[in-house]
Design a protein that fits this description.
about 220 residues, alpha/beta, TIM Barrel, 8-stranded parallel β-sheet, about 35% helix, about 20% strand
């Protein structure tokens, strides 16, 4: 049986009431809380650091999925794990010694993931496939919320799923960017199993109800 997980991204949440926002999606059935960390160098925006991860950790027992859109991610992994991160993903474009970075994340007790931008070819991750806990495919160019899903990523998901089925079958594909209530089923059918949604949830008047609607859509596909 397929297992799908929904990971609302607090990038689009109201930070003046972050605990309430997280609680609302947790009531709606969220599986994971996704936290986008941007440094103003690898991507144009600057977002949050370990202190916000600590605040999220104090607000929920759900796994915290910290997506590092930063240069030199190896320098900051320990700080984010200590703050409460359960999953940490790094962009393949940001680190020369990717195997070392993956090993460091695992040594600290977190799940380790690698991220590929829309135009980054799958073969760039070929050697790392057997040792990662998940792979995150960006379906928008990183750095901004509320972007539209890039259609070419659907075929990329299918091709990656075939690679993983052969070399790391238990490794899930996470997809981040432009995942709407109307798009999530198509992305699931392509082979993804973790879905990041930011503005599609927190940009609505009822994040709890929208989270529940996402989960209901996914549950109909879990057969």
């Amino acid at each position: 049986m397929k297992t799908f997980k929904l990971a609302p991204s607090i990038l689009s949440a109201d930070f003046t009431k972050l605990g309430e926002e997280i609680a609302s999606v947790e009531r709606g059935g969220a599986d994971i809380i996704h936290i986008d960390v941007m440094d103003g160098h690898f991507v144009p925006n600057i977002t949050v650091g370990p202190l916000v991860v600590e605040a999220a950790r104090a607000s929920t027992n759900l796994p915290l999925d910290v997506h590092l859109m930063i240069e030199h991610p190896g320098l900051y992994i320990e700080s984010f794990v200590k703050a409460g991160a359960n999953m940490i993903s790094v962009h393949i474009e940001t680190t020369t010694h990717l195997e070392r970075t993956i090993a460091a994340i695992k040594a600290l007790g977190a799940q380790a993931g690698v991220v590929l931008n829309p135009a980054t070819p799958l073969n760039s991750a070929e050697e790392i496939v057997p040792i990662v806990d998940f792979i995150l495919l960006m379906s928008v160019n990183p750095g901004f919320a509320a972007q539209k899903f890039i259609p070419l990523v659907l075929d990329k998901i299918r091709r990656l799923r075939a690679i993983l089925d052969a070399r790391n079958p238990n490794c899930p594909i996470e997809v981040d960017g432009g995942i709407s209530l109307q798009k999530v089923a198509e992305v699931a059918r392509a082979g993804a199993s973790i879905f990041v949604a930011g503005s599609a949830i927190f940009g609505t008047p009822d994040p709890e109800g929208t989270t529940r609607a996402f989960k209901e859509t996914l549950s109909r596909l879990m057969s």
